[in-house]
Design brief:
Function: Exoribonuclease involved in ribosome biosynthesis. Involved in the processing of ITS1, the internal transcribed spacer localized between the 18S and 5.8S rRNAs.
GO biological process, one term: rRNA processing
Subcellular location: Nucleus
Number of strands: 10
Shape: elongated
CATH architecture of one domain: 2-Layer Sandwich
CATH class of one domain: Alpha Beta
Distance between the termini: 126 Å
Strand content: 5-15%
Organism: Friedmanniomyces simplex
CATH superfamily of one domain: Ribonuclease H-like superfamily/Ribonuclease H
Keywords: Exonuclease, Hydrolase, Nuclease, Nucleus, rRNA processing
Oligomer: single chain
Order of helices and strands: HEEHHEEEEHHEHEHHHHHEEH
Amino acid sequence: MSKLDISQVSSNWKKLQAQLKSDKKPEAHGNGVKRKRPEETQKIVGGFKKPKLAESRPVKRKMGTGGSKQAETGQAAHDRSTLIKEHGIAPEDVSAAYGAVNGTAKRHGDDVNGGLHPTHKAGKYVALDCEMVGTGPPPHSDNVLARASLVNFHGEQIYDSYVLPPPGIKVEDYRTHVSGIKPSHMKPGIARPFAEVQANVANLLAGRVLVGHALKNDLQVLLLSHPKRDLRDTSRHTKFRVESMGKPPALRNLAKSELGMMIQSGEHSSIEDARAAVLLYRKEKVGFEEENRRHFGVSHHRKDKKAVKEKGTPGIGDESDDDAEDEGDEEADLELLAQEDDGTEEVGQGQSVAPQAKRKRKRKKRTKRK
C-alpha cells in the first residue's frame, strides 16, 4: 500500500489529527511493574491490602445459621408467648425451659438417681426416656438399660434411677460421651437391680398415656409393652416429620426448631430428653390426639374413669384441663356408638333385637304370602 500524501489530504483531516494529539495524555515511563489500583478501592485485611472486590462476594453460610443475636432473642420471646397463649403451657414450665438454664430442659429440682419422687404425682400422661450402654462382641451394638427416667405432664420428675447390668452380662462400652453413663453409676449401692426398676416403671405406665421419642427402643430395653393407642411418639408424629422429609427426626433437632431449646449438646440426660418430649407433645396435643383418633377411633374408657371418681378412690391424676374435657355430651355419644357397634336396638323392657333379624323375619313372611 502506497504512503499517504499529506498534500492531497483535506484541511479538516489535518485539524482532527492536531486535536487528537492535544487531547492525548502523556505516557508514564514504564518500569516493568504493573500499575496499582487507587488506594480508595482497596481494603487492608490482616495487614495486607485486598481489593474491594472481595467484599461483593456472598458469604457462605449453613442453612439456618444466619441472623443476628437480637433476631434470635426476639424469635425466642415469640416462641415463649406462643407456647403460653396458644398452646396452654404453664408460664413456669416455659420459663424453666427457656430462661432458667439458657434455653435447655434442665431444672434445679432434678434429683438424679432419686428413684420414685416423694411428692410429684404421675397424672394421666407420663414421658419416658432411657439411656443405654453397649455389650456383646465388637462393635458392642447390643443395648443394656443403664438409666430410666420419667416425668409427668408438667415436666416434673417422678422417677429416675441408674440400673445394674443383668447377672452374667458385662458392659463393654459405656458410651459416656453420648449416654452420660460412667462405670461408677452402674455399681451396687448406686444403681438399682433391673427387676426393681422394671417393676417401678411398669407400675407408673399402667393405665396411662405414654409420651416419648422413639419409644420402641425404650420399651424394648425395659422388656415391657404398652397399648399402641396409648402411645404418643414424637418421632412418628406427621407434622414433626416434615423437615426431616418423612424420616424419623432427631429429638435434638425437634427441640430446637419447635421449642427453641438446646438439648444433647454434650452428654445426654434422660430426664431432660423426657421433659423435651412432653413439651413437644403439649405444644401439638390437639394434632396428636386427632391423629390417634384417626388410627384407633374414639376411646371407650370414660365410664370406667367416671366410676372411679364417684367411688372416691385415688384416680389417675388431674391435669389442668385434660380430665375435665368431654364430660357430658361425649358420654352419650359413646353410648350411642357402642350400641351401633353391637348392632342392637332396644325393644320393650330389657329386650333387644338385632335389626338384621327383623329384616329376615319380614322377608320370610312376604315369601309365605306369595
